[in-house]
Design goal:
The structure is a single chain. Helix content is 57%, strand content 7%. The chain is mainly α. The chain has one domain: Hypothetical protein af1432, CATH 1.10.3210. Strands 1-2 form a two-stranded antiparallel sheet.
Length: 189
Amino acid sequence: MEVASRAEMVAFLESLGTAEVEHSGGDFLEHLCAVHDLLLARGASARVAAAGMFHSIYGTERFQGFTLPLDQRERVRELIGERAERIAWVNCVMDRAMFDAAVAEALDGAASATVRDREGGEIPMSAEEVRDVAEVHLFDWLEQVERAASDQPGGWGYRRTAYRQMAELVGQRGQWLYGAVFAREPAVR
């Protein structure tokens, strides 16, 4: 299945009221679009960029300002495809600490992983899925860290090791963007 156009994805998200929801110093729709655009600009596939557009549509461990009910997953699948929707869904429901461990295992060569969702259910993932979710998750944080760090527990240091490992797993484009963004981190006084 082809991924819907950016305009079609934006129209769908607008119809849900995402532009009315505050998120990291702007609105939720702006953030979703910015993650999508950043992924594309740095060479991600259309599928991964589409997952980035919907990366927190069902709410996440830290963002519950907007949550599309999970019974609406089929609507999202019809728009962006099954694979992109699964990447977005995993990003929404995963237990972040367990995902961080899966990233470390992938760096050590693991061919698959099982992460838990926040309710304790198991999510089996291939190494490629771990990498795709890592790419979306990393670019989500890198897109907003400069605006959100002052409001987030841990600020710039929030899950620093995990994000560095995600950048390594993603490869050159992830490492480059990680370095470029964190080079702008304010000096500690």
